[in-house]
Automatic annotation (TrEMBL), chain A:
Limits of the ABC transmembrane type-1 domain: 26-222
Cited Gene3D superfamilies: MetI-like (1.10.3720.10)
GO biological process: transmembrane transport
SUPFAM superfamilies recorded: MetI-like
Spans traversing the lipid bilayer: 30-53, 65-85, 97-118, 154-181, 201-225
Highest taxon in the source lineage: Bacteria
PROSITE patterns xrefs: ABC_TM1
Record keywords, A-Z: Membrane, Transmembrane, Transmembrane helix, Transport
Intracellular or extracellular location(s): Cell membrane
Species this protein is from: uncultured Thiotrichaceae bacterium
Protein name: ABC-type tungstate transport system, permease protein
One GO CC term, this protein: plasma membrane
UniProtKB/TrEMBL annotation, chain B:
GO CC terms: membrane
InterPro entries listed in its UniProt record: AAA+_ATPase, ABC_transporter-like_ATP-bd, ABC_transporter-like_CS, ABC_transpr_CbiO/EcfA_su, Metal_Ion_Import_ABC, P-loop_NTPase
SMART domains: AAA
Gene3D superfamilies documented for this protein: P-loop containing nucleotide triphosphate hydrolases
A single GO BP: transmembrane transport
Family: Belongs to the ABC transporter superfamily.
UniProt keywords, alphabetically: ATP-binding, Nucleotide-binding, Transport
Alphabetized PANTHER family for the sequence: METAL TRANSPORT SYSTEM ATP-BINDING PROTEIN TM_0124-RELATED
Name under which the protein is recorded: ABC transporter ATP-binding protein
Record has ATP-binding as a keyword: yes
Length: 232, 225
């Protein structure tokens, strides 16, 4: 085994020389997670809005449910979808198991509760007069929603950033639903697990660096947006 | 400029909450250019009444007839709700202004009138590019009234519009209300302190135990001097 310093240098050279296999894995990771967050964002934000602005029986139960789902481990989400999508499962005919679509589904399920809970908190924090004011100056419900969304944009961006951070780094659901197939479903976290188990630390460290840089960018963006929101 | 012959009639308006009657068989008729003051103790239901009139809160029962449209019969609140929201404007005790500049807030109002004219009318031209969070209470009130000027509602409902304002801001608010009134906007002011509005008001009602005393014309000077 190489020394740690030599491994890190090797990892950096893999990144900087544009190692095809490494960058394919990074590309797959970003493609799947970006698709998942884009699909989940709209319905989740709407859901958060309705939970904050409407009254209906079971509303509090639904809020509790979404908050509970935040704590469900990724591997349990993966297991649930594995059972659903496996050949004997109720959705087995769709033949989605070990595909990128299955990984997207798993990641949507993972980030959806987080997006709902965080956007609900953001909408909840807005003064209730905002909705009434929007309606009373002539906005229809659709326009009023976007006026309120503009008020909470930093909170909602924060939710998207946190949701993206959660799914790009999760390993359990991706491993179970994607199957870690090279050039198809192998993403950053599953590749790190595989390469480390093989003793190939350089690629694992290189991919870990990508995740650390990404986390830094996401968290810095989140703090910046939250700070800007507080000022406004 | 609005037509002075617009009218709206709220009839048999009732609302209860948790078994307690808040409003009982309220009857209000307003014509363009009216300025009605509704007085009453805190918690007497003034705000509830205004919110129902604005189409923001569901009453137990209310019939409404209006000069708007072809149908001037008394029609259920639910069927008139959309019309109420389109033609009646409600201003909270502390107006809510959206994040952004004053100009941006005025741009939200769907109007054929010019934003710059609205700012000139409310004397807020110098505040055009100012962020709304930095405005004083009086300035916020004038921005809210500029929105009303832009929207030109049939009725403008104001909930304690001069509460927490200093003497100067209060006077400017009342002058703007008088200006709207002369433009044919019917104004309803809910306040527990009637003395502030003598300059603008031509009708007064008192809300007590959920019932509204019948309106009576009065001369403010004669009434309060």
């Amino acid at each position: 085994m190489e020394s740690i310093s030599a491994t890190i240098i090797h990892a950096l050279s893999l990144l900087l020389t544009g190692d095809a296999e490494l960058w394919t894995i990074i590309g797959i990771s970003f493609s799947i997670s970006t698709t998942a967050i884009l699909i989940a964002a709209g319905p989740a934000i709407l859901c958060g809005f309705f939970l904050a602005y409407t009254e209906f029986p079971g509303r509090r139960l639904l809020i509790s449910l979404f908050n509970t789902l935040l704590a469900v481990p990724a591997v349990v989400v993966g297991l649930t979808f594995y059972i659903l999508l496996s050949r004997q499962g109720p959705l087995g005919d769709w033949k989605l198991l070990f595909t990128q679509t299955a990984m997207v589904l798993g990641q949507i399920a993972l980030c959806f509760p987080l997006l709902v809970a965080m956007s609900h908190a953001a909408f909840q924090a807005v003064d209730k007069r905002a909705w009434e004011t929007a309606r009373t100056i002539g906005a229809n419900p659709f326009q009023a929603f976007f006026m309120i969304l503009r008020e909470v944009r930093f909170g909602v961006f924060g939710a998207l950033v946190a949701g993206y951070g959660r799914i790009i780094a999760e390993v359990g659901a991706s491993m179970m639903l994607g199957g870690n197939i090279l050039h198809y479903t192998r993403n950053i976290p599953t590749a790190i697990v595989l390469e480390t188990s093989k003793g190939e630390l350089a690629q694992g460290i290189a991919l870990g660096m990508v995740l650390i840089v990404l986390s830094f960018i996401l968290i810095t963006t989140l703090h910046y947006l939250q700070g800007k929101g507080r000022v406004e | 400029m609005k037509q002075h012959d617009t009218y709206i009639h709220f009839h048999e308006l009732s609302k209860s909450w948790n078994g307690k009657t808040l409003l009982e068989q309220i009857d209000i008729e307003l014509h363009g250019g009216d300025c009605l003051l509704i007085t009453g103790e805190n918690g007497s239901g003034k705000s509830t009444l205004l919110r129902i009139m604005a189409g923001l809160l569901k009453p137990d029962h209310a019939l409404i007839s209006t000069s708007r449209g072809t149908d001037n019969q008394h029609v259920n609140w639910h069927k008139r709700k959309k019309m109420l929201r389109q033609h009646i404007m409600y201003l909270h005790q502390t107006p809510y202004l959206f994040a952004g500049t004053v100009k941006k807030n005025l741009a939200y109002v769907k109007s054929e009138l010019d934003i710059n004219d609205a700012m000139q009318w409310a004397d807020i031209e110098t505040l055009a590019d100012q962020q709304t969070y930095s405005l004083s209470g009086g300035e916020k009130q004038r921005v809210a009234l500029a929105r009303a000027w832009l929207k030109q509602p049939d009725i403008l409902l104001l909930d304690e519009p001069t509460a927490n304002l200093d003497q100067d801001s209060r006077q400017r608010t009342i002058e703007l209300l008088c200006s709207l009134k002369t433009q044919g906007v019917a104004i309803v002011i809910a306040s527990h302190d009637p003395l502030h509005f003598t300059q603008a008001v031509n009708k007064q009602m008192n809300l007590n135990n959920g019932k509204l005393c019948r309106p009576f014309p009065f001369t403010c000077e004669a009434q309060y001097k």
